[in-house]
Amino acid sequence: MRILFSSTWGYGHVFPMVPLARAFQAAGHEVRWATHEPAVAIAAAAGLDAVRTGLDVAGVREVTGRNAQAVAALRPQDRAAFAFPHMFGAWAAPRMAPGLLELADEWRPDLMVHEQAELAAPWVATVLDLPLLTHSFGGAVPAAILAAAGEQLRALWSEQGLELPEYAGCYADGYLDICPTPLQTQSLSHIRRRLEIRPESYTGEPAGGPDVMLTPDDRPLVYVTLGTVFAQAEVLAEAVRGVAALPVRVLVTVGPQGQPEALGDQPDNVSVVTWVQQSEVLRHSSVVVSHAGSGTFLGALGLGIPQLCLPQAADQFRNAEAALSTGTGLVLTPDAMSAAAITAAVQRLLDDATLRAKARAMAEVIAQMPSAAEVAAALDRAGYSGIGGPTTSRP
């Protein structure tokens, strides 16, 4: 069978779908991945047949730059309500749609799988009458934000004589959800068919060796990252100052676009690198300090690690809310963040037995979710016609 995956350009939008794509591939199916130019190499590095069908590098830079200017005056927690409909809806999807339609029409996949922010796929699947599954990259995108994104695409749909469906056409034949129910902060009532799929901590190949993990030491390891998009040097530097004040080892990643030297000289207990194999780092970590991006957030909880969330934008505030509501982590919003506050929060995460127990309990919940291989097999048995039924947790 043939399965066509499609994504936007960010690491956090590509990585969550890689395990399922690989599972289909390992089971002998043909898999292709359509995306914008910056993500072609990311998907190809995962061993997938990746094709550019959207924006080139300059186009993505233009779109992200326009979004940054537009949201600069908004509070960080309010930016997603503008960014998602405009960046992924109005500005990206119409430029992805023609190439994706041409690829799908020529290749004729048996199933399309797209991530929640890639909004050309629902249109293509409707035009070609192909089954479509929406794959999450974290908690559910709020229904109102998806509806607003759909409005930005009304002209695209009407050009084909099609009525604009609800929620920009997402969830047409089902929703593959890497976020366990206890961590959801949004109502799922608008999603009729949902199948959980265990989040797997795929982050590509490392570009720097985390030697700090390999040195025998009784001090706990604290992993500090602000991800691949929001790793502003000043915010990261403040976080590192706060953590480094404790008797711990500190491993810091600055992201693929960052420069370790931008953080300046560091004390002996701090190691700064560009990129690491996050799944390996997490296995050695006692506490995670992060932006609460979904990959890091779910990866840490999958191993029962409590975390300090420093949300900056996007879905990070929703993830931080989930950490608080489940008692699995602590949160410092941008207006409350300081080195001293970070020191106190990390010390509590190291010492608080209740927080640590709740994080371990969440790991047990995540472990019960079906693996990518199990989901691929279930979809194969279903004949790629959708996942059927109401919300469910196992195939």
Automatic annotation (TrEMBL):
Coiled coil start-end: none
Keywords: Glycosyltransferase, Transferase
Residue span, Erythromycin biosynthesis protein CIII-like N-terminal domain: 23-143
Domain Erythromycin biosynthesis protein CIII-like C-terminal: 244-379
Pfam families noted in UniProt: EryCIII-like_C, EryCIII-like_N
A single MF term (Gene Ontology): hexosyltransferase activity
Name of the protein described by the UniProt record: Putative Glycosyltransferase, MGT family
Species this chain originates from: metagenome
Lineage: unclassified sequences, metagenomes
